[in-house]
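Today's session is about reading a structure prediction critically. Students often jump straight to the picture, but the first step is always the sequence itself: look for stretches that repeat, for charged clusters, for runs of hydrophobic residues. Only then move on to the predicted structure, which in these notes is written as discrete structure tokens rather than atom positions. Here is the chain we will use throughout the hour.
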Amino acid sequence: MEFLESLQQNGKPSHVQSVGRALLLIELLAYENREMSLTEISNTLGWPKSTVHGMISTLRDYHYIDQSGLTGGYKLGIHLFELGNAVKRSWDISKVAKEYLVRLNTKLDEMVQLAVESDGEVLYLDKLDSKRMMRIVSDVGIRLPMHCSGLGKVLLAYKPEAEVKRIINQKGMKSMTSRTIVTLPDLRKELEKIREKGYGIDDQEIMEGLRCVAAPIFNSNGQVLYAVSVSGLYYNMRGQHLEDVIAEVKKAAQDISYDMGYRESKIK
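Below is the predicted structure for this chain, in token form.
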């Protein structure tokens, strides 16, 4: 079983064997996603029935494993659900993302923003200003259009087509500058590029002289509910500096995604 081999390879000499085995048993039940008998578990893991029975008894007492009163089979217990919800509650995006936002701001000396889609608009959750003292239209709690901002386009790129169309029909595509995308077909092409590259750029589309690079943040379910961006003056955000910004924003987004429960192998 490929799943079992991969887990067993993670073992280290310093690990407590009984703890490792208990976790492996829990992982097996999660992977199988069904009730399993004592014999099935013993045969799959290659452990004596007496060893399996002792571990199951302990885990059952702590409600990590439940036993069916009808079939006698074993499945994951309710306490794991409770713990999972506790972990999920601890995934406050602003807290999780903060250190990465600070790192971006310090390393690049550009403005850094964190945003979410709210009622078809970009809602800024956090913002770190640049020492260059650049003044732009965004601030925490401010809402901006999605079709002409880096963050907005990234958030749109991972929504179903019907949802994108609904938002555009509701909010329109107002021209903010001469470079603003103002037609749905052109926007669709832009969103496709974002999905292919893993990042989006606002190239003076919402404000003359401003360039922004944004990347998606995935949650544990693979959904893109948030995005992170770095914004700077157009004449600064060019050449190698722009390439550095793109690389750093993508890396920060992936790191935040990982801390939110998503795994790198799932990121396209």
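Discussion point for the tutorial: The beta strands are 65-67, 74-76, 111-118, 121-128, 143-144, 200-203, 210-218, 224-233.
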